[in-house]
Automatic annotation (TrEMBL), chains A, B:
Residues 10-104 form the HTH arsR-type domain. GO terms for molecular function: DNA-binding transcription factor activity. It comes from the Bacteria. SMART domains: HTH_ARSR (SM00418). PROSITE patterns: HTH_ARSR_2. This is ArsR family transcriptional regulator.
Amino acid sequence: MSAQPRELSHPTRDEIRLESVLHALSDPTRLHIARTIDQFGAAVTCSDIEVEVTKSTSTHHYRVLREAGVIRQTYQGTAKLNGLRRDDLDTRFPGLMTAILGVEDGE
Amino acid sequence: MSAQPRELSHPTRDEIRLESVLHALSDPTRLHIARTIDQFGAAVTCSDIEVEVTKSTSTHHYRVLREAGVIRQTYQGTAKLNGLRRDDLDTRFPGLMTAILGVEDGE
């Protein structure tokens, strides 16, 4: 008997709020995470993305991104995969992610 | 002899940081202020814009917008005028303000 897969809560597409997305991406570490996932073009584990913060701070940042609707976190076995909700975001806020993610780091 | 005009500090165009702009606009009241100024299409006084917060909170919000480079605040006599730095923002982050300001309130 396999264990019940854990499911993390996510806002539906219609529940995603602009203010929450802007807040989530207003932090340099979270912006870096979102950009890196976007560049991978696929769901990645947290360890695929280098961040200069503690593990617990990193976990917090991923949760903020998930709760804002920017990323989708799913379990694959014991690994947590992180994918950008690009389709949902592009539908809700056309042009927003292109404008935000297209800007070079440090600009 | 006229009094020296007071000047408020603003970031230069190149000093405007994406994270600061996103943070400034991640608050519903500040987003409302920016949208309203954009709709006026000209610099407006704070009293032209209805906000449901106290005067001191309102002043704080305008300061955050100014320090992030979203608005320019200038004195005209004793009145403080607020203008959106649309040209600067569009140059620095193409498409960003269109994407953010184009989204309807409450979406």
